[in-house]
Amino acid sequence: MAVIFRPFGRWAWSTSLPTLALLSMVSCGSGSGGSAENVVNSLSLDALLTSQLIQAGLDGDPIDGRIIPEITEPLAELGKRLFFTKSLSGDFDAACASCHHPRLAGGDAMALPIGTDAVDPDLLGPLRAHHSAAEDYDGGPTVPRNSPTTFNVALWDESLFWDGRVQNLESGIATPDSSSSGTADPLAGNTLAAAQARFPVTNEEEMRGFTFEYGLNNTAVRDHLAARLGNFGVGAGEITEDWVSLFRTAFEEPTMPVQDLITFENVVAAIGAYEDSQVFVDTPWKQYVEGNQNAISNAAKRGALLFLREPNEGGAACDRCHSGDFFTDGDYHLTAFPQIGRGKGVPNLIGDMDADYGRSMFVGGMIERFSFRTPALINVTETGPWGHAGSFSDLETLLRYHVDPVSGFANFNLAALPAGMQTAGFVQNTGEVVDQLLLKRGAGTSRLPANLSLSDRDYADLIAFLESLTDPRILDPNFLEDWIARNDAGFTDSQLLLAHDGQGEVY
Q1: What CATH number belongs to 318-448?
Q2: Is CB count within 10 Å lower at the N or C end of the chain?
């Protein structure tokens, strides 16, 4: 067999009948025999995987012609400084980077976040703790959903947030400020990233705090924060930094009045440009699809076949939802992952207010209840804990639960969760979600395969494949340095997040 790999997943090949007969007899396993057997196995895997890639329409490039901002552009540079300043939190105790730090793969390495009122505002990661004197202290995390990574946010076309409440429409972008879920928000901006950045600052647990502009609406909060940065109006004198020159450079407006220049719309436009610059997709998998047959292991190739194939072909049908080169359909599905943490303040069947209805909280109705947006899988090995509530800190545990949620729920190990995690509603809430999954399966409306039987090696192969989806550059602190704000001769921010892990590591 001659297999000719071409760039961007376009192949041509010729196959002789004897070779086809040989391939039909060769196991897909990597084998434990000599090098000749391994070579044959590798060749057979490449041939099978080539066919599967063509069938799935994959070319390895999730960027797909999008224009990505450079981090060196003045607007993205301004966005980086804004992303790292605690001046955008009501009480100066949280920054965007508190939950989405580049050294933590664009997340916070926590099951569920602690935003405002942390014991040490600069401490990030698993040791970050809620202050015992803070509002609503209960010993556990304060934000009800896991922090999604900001890495590759520019590759999302449909929506952002777990429930998609920031969503692209033909008429613009709908947000929680829209008059309805199908109506564009005139202040949303031009990108999903900019629209999303409007909301953490208005949330008490994330960045606003419980006293800042108490009783006033989102507009008052945003206007106050912009005035703080511009040193005018209600925000005059609250900080000492001169942000004006940075805004003038970024927006090329040398004479515009400050009140017109430093608006919250311009703040989030800069933050959105910074987030959109965080595109890290140079993965071994991409290199393999584009022609480097040695870029990934045989185990990863077997895992890719499992991932892409349907159950009747011996696969796990993962790409029913994790489809395309970005490995997401951008849609919302009920996977029955455990519900832990504070929840979203909606009632379960017995009336406890710690459930999370997922997508239906934004669009209403029962059809989308407990459904969440399919996460993308580029860099997935580095973005845990996983799940909308961060229920899994181990990928194999997640995969085993995903394959059989009924048994996974029955055997879920609450003791493996972080100390202080709120789990009082776990049985009731997760039980309702699993029941809903079974109803969907009975009605034929669930895309989650049932009755899969995977071996230990299958799980190991799937993990090897997922590992091949990580861009190795994001593991290099020197590479990530361009995306981390530092005080320097050009600008000093007294409210800069000086991130550390509490054990001597400075981010």
Answers
A1: 1.10.760
A2: N
What are the Cα distances from residue 273, in Å, to 65, 246, 269, 279? 17, 15, 6, 11
Q: Which residue type sits at 473?
A: R
457: three-class secondary structure by DSSP: helix
Res 13: pLDDT:
34
User: Per mean pLDDT, which range of 6-10, 188-192, 267-271 is the poorest?
Assistant: 6-10
DSSP state of 418: P
- In 3D space, the residue among 69, 71, 101, 70 whose CA is nearest the CA of residue 84 turns out to be 101
Alpha helices by DSSP H, 290-349: 298-308
Distance CA 436, CA 348 (A): 13
**Residue 419: what are its φ and ψ, rounded to 5°?**
-60, 140
Residue 441 confidence class, pLDDT cut points 50, 70, 90: very high
At 168, list the tokens.
């692209």
- Neighbouring CB atoms inside 10 A of 133's CB total 8
Could you give the CA distance from residue 50 to residue 61 in angstroms, rounded to a whole number?
16
**What superfamily would CATH give domain 74-145+193-277+479-483?**
Cytochrome c-like domain (1.10.760.10)
pLDDT single digits (tens) 102-121: 999 999 999 999 999 999 99
For 3, phi and psi rounded to 5 degrees? -110, 120
Q: Which of 377, 440, 373, 381 is nearest to 405 (CA)?
A: 440
Q: Are 275 and 267 in contact (CB under 8 A)?
A: no
List the domain boundaries for the chain. Answer: 2-56, 74-145+193-277+479-483, 318-448
Q: pTM to 2 decimals?
A: 0.92
Q: State the pairing for strand pair 372-373/332-333.
A: antiparallel
The token pair at 86 is: 């605690």
Percent helix, strand, coil in the chain (nearest 5)? Answer: 40, 5, 55
- Whole-angstrom Cα distance, residue 172 to residue 194? 13
506: exposed, middle or buried (C-beta count within 10 Å: 0-12, 13-18, 19+)? exposed
DSSP assignment of 53-88: HHHHT--S-SSTTPPPPPTTSHHHHHHHHHHTBGGG
Q: Using only C-alpha atoms, what is the Rg of the chain?
A: 24
Over residues 146-205, the pLDDT tens digits come to 999 999 999 999 999 999 999 999 999 999 999 887 899 999 999 999 999 999 999 999
